[in-house]
Amino acid sequence: MVIEGTALGSVLAGVILAVLVGVAMWLLYLGLRAQRGAAAAIAANARLEALIASAPALAMVVRTDGRLELADRLADWFGLSPAPRYLADLAGGTTGLTAEDAAGLAEDVAAAQKAGRPFARAVHAQGSQRSLMIHGARAPRDLQAPGGVVLWVFDATGSQAEIARLADEGAAAHAAFDALTGLIEAAPLPMWYRGADMRLAMVNSAYVAAVEGVDAEDVVRRGVELIEGSGVGGPLASAVLARDTDLPQMQAMPATIRGARRMLRVHDVPLPGGGVAGFAVDIEELEQARSGIKRFGDAQRAMLDRLSAGVVQFAADRTLIFSNQPFQRLFAMKSEWLSDRPEFDRVLERMREANRLPEVRDFPGWKAERRDWFFATGGAIEENWHLPGGVHLRVVAQPLPDGGLLLIFEDRTEQVQLASARDTLLRVRTATFDNLFEALGVFAADGRLQIWNNKFRALWGFDEEFLATHPRVDALSEAAATRLSNPSRARLIGDLVRAATVERQQRGGRVAFADGRHFEFAAVPLPDGNGLFTMLDISDSRRIERALRDRNEALEAADQVKTAFVANMSYELRTPLTSISGFAEMLSEGYAGKLSKAADSYVDAILESVGRLGMLVDEVLDLTQNEGKTPPLEFLDVDLERVAHIAADAARTAAKKKQQDFAVEIQPSTGSIKGDAERLRQVIDHLLKHAVTGTPERGRILLHTDGTAKAARIVVSDDGGGMDAAAVARAFDRFAPGAGAPGSDFGLGLPLAKQFVEAHGGTIQLVSEPGEGTLITVELPRR
Questions:
Q1: DSSP letter at 125?
Q2: pLDDT tens digit string along 388-427?
Q3: Which DSSP letter does residue 228 get?
Q4: What are the Cα distances from residue 764, in Å, to 609, 700, 713, 724?
Q5: Where do the TM regions start and end (predicted)?
Q6: Is position 695 within any domain?
Q7: DSSP string of 747-776?
Q8: How many CA atoms lie within 13 A of 666 on its CB side?
Q9: φ and ψ at residue 354, rounded to 5 degrees
Q10: What is the CA radius of gyration of the chain?
Q11: CA nearest 713: which of 636, 637, 640, 767?
Q12: Is the residue at 242 inside a domain?
């Protein structure tokens, strides 16, 4: 039992020992682990202390009672020594925080303690001249400061300076941006900005107005483009090219602005951020001006080609840029050579080769002088070139504002020749004037005597010194009055000159000189505005005129005596004709007994001759009584148809005796007229008697009448022997031999008919040819 007890104790002791060893080993392990943990904690604490020491921010804890836990370094930041114990101690008067900052910080800490709201406040340390940034939050539990607040204090002195500098720069940039924005907004040009995605981000008011948008936001939101189209060459393509190449782009594109088609020059400028700024300049007026200038230049050159003068233009580098066709012809230059734009010197040399320059001894010096024309400042330069062959050129050199030169070559050969011919003509005219029989004087528009000949001076007896003063016409008239038989007639000179120079009318007159001579004056307007005054001596013609007038008066008196004699003889013939007619009729009626057949034929012949003689006497009386004047007429309504029938009936007997075919055509349109019925019947009688007498036996005679609303017409025609031209010319002449016809059998019928027709205001025409008969037409107006 003891052995068993001993063994059990040994085992129990071994177990206890083993347990104690195990516990010791465990304790040793825990100690070693704690030692390692303490060492790690110490190292970590050291690292944290070092990190905190080098950190830009320092921490302090504000407990609920206001006590502070902070490092000395942080107190130094506040400019306080020793370190403050309470929050209120941070305001130290001349050190620490300002009272305003301290009060604000206390309010923030109280708010954080109560509501747990974090805060941030910038304060200024007076003692250290530091700018501090304090961030505060409720203290975590691990700090074992229940209700406290942890304040992290950052030294923001450098940051605040940078912030202030950046604030100033920001303010300046903001002001510049505002100014730039105002400038862009006020700019009359459409301006815009595109983001990197090429979408519109900003537009100005001019852009909005151009696209007729509501406002800038509306235009940007809808992405309204100023230029239509987005394909190759469109506005987006130009902007993309500017963005991708980082180079400004410019192109001209058409656009519709306020309903009008305009040409815009669009500029796209790349910006550093990937966006593109753009603006558009309206160049429509510029394009129109350019087009107008081009058209003007083309028209000017076309006009210069049509000029007779040669024109050539040189640029500032003295190369030829234009020459017209007359220049090429004048100087024998080919257009192919001129198209190479030769220089001024080469052109002069080519002119010399063509023998189109004046002959000079020092050609290089002469050429250098002409080269100076490019720099002339006194305006146009003019020269006259005398070329071989008698050619005269007028050369005008006009320096141009751009440094070029314009040359004009005018061929004045013909003008020089004309001037020479003009001088010759003037000398010939002067010699002619001085030797003319007429007296001539040329007066200007102001009435002054300009030119006169020797005849003019000698005729009026003027002194050469007086005429050399070119006196006015009034003074000249006054000086000439003493030479006239009636001095008041001198005014005629002034009247005639004024009519020619002012009224531009030709007038004339006659005056008598005191010495008995007579002159005819005339004033003729000249093309140059002057007036030509002429004087012609008509003394001889006046004497001849007076002699002719006396002779005419004597002839008229003799004609009156002849007319009176014929009239008296006609009246005297009526008495024996009446007696012869009466006795012949008594014999024919058998009052003296029955006559033989031969005696009857003799009596009939007597009666026929008496009738013819009586008719001639009546006609002579009609002609002599009127003496070419309109015979007295009694104008009444006359039925012309009835008058024509009566005349036709009277002529039918004579036509029947000659077995003539007498046709009468009285148309209803003949109607009636105002006139003298007896005279109208005599007109038809005379015409029919003329036809019957001039038509042989078995001939044909026609009486035709008709009319219109304005006139009545009478036509008498026959197929007799007709009349030659001489007989037709004197058919109506009452004093022609055998008046009215080539034979003496026609009497005075046609002159009387003409007289009566014209007295009614009508016309009579006779048409006849030998062997073709005669046609007489009378037209009488309806009054």
A1: E
A2: 878 888 899 989 888 889 899 988 888 887 877 777 777 7
A3: S
A4: 30, 21, 10, 18
A5: 6-29
A6: yes
A7: TTHHHHHHHHHHHTT-EEEEEE-TTS-EEE
A8: 14
A9: -85, 5
A10: 70
A11: 640
A12: no
What are 552-611's pLDDT values in tens digits? 777 777 666 666 656 566 556 666 767 676 766 777 777 767 777 777 777 677 766 666
Structural domain containing residue 487: 425-537
* Peptide bond connecting 140 to the previous residue in cis, omega within 30 degrees of 0: no
Q: Quote the percentage of the chain above a pLDDT of 90.
A: 8
Residues 316, 413: contact at Cβ < 8 Å? no
Rounded to the nearest 5 degrees, what angle is found at the Cα of 191, between the Cα atoms of 226 and 188? 100
487 with 611, same domain: the answer is no
| Same domain flag for 656 and 776 | yes
Q: Are residues 639 and 774 in the same domain?
A: yes
Report, in this order, helix, strand and coil percent for the chain, each rounded to 5.
Answer: 50, 25, 25
70 and 5 part of one domain: no
Q: What is the CATH number of the domain that holds 455?
A: 3.30.450.20
CB-based contact 661:721 (threshold 8 Å): no
pLDDT, mean of residues 306-335: 86
Residues 639 and 777 in one domain: yes
Q: From the DSSP assignment, how many helices (H) and strands (E) are in the chain?
A: 23, 27
Measure the CA–CA gap between 382 and 397, rounded to whole angstroms: 6
357 with 471, same domain? no
Q: Model confidence over 693-746: pLDDT tens digits?
A: 889 998 999 999 999 999 999 999 999 888 888 888 888 876 555 443 333 445
Q: 711 exposed, middle or buried (CB, 10 Å; 0-12, 13-18, 19+)?
A: middle
Number of domains in the chain: 6
Q: How far apart are CA 644 and CA 684, in angstroms?
A: 7
